[in-house]
Request: fold
Amino acid sequence: MAHMVFCVRNKREMEGLDEPPFDSEFGQKIYKNVSKAAWDEWVQRQKMLLNEYRLQPWTPQAQQFLVEQMEEFFFGSGSALPSEYVPPAH
Reply:
């Protein structure tokens, strides 16, 4: 049976992640409160942040920034898009 969570992003019961994304207390918090669908949204947001801010994900500064953005994305008011971001035309 799938791991079900009440998703903090989508405000309804949904299928959760298969395992915690990090081996930490924050990873457990995400595992217990974030759906697979919301996690996929975050992955797309993270890619955009990496590209827009030209972050190097192996640096501690970039990692800290992404964790802060992730916390805001899931458990805050949502992370803000960069002011110069232009969404791709479909």
Summary: The helical segments are 25-33, 36-52, 60-75. The CA atoms of residues 56 and 62 lie 6 Å apart. The mean pLDDT is 91. The radius of gyration is 14 Å.
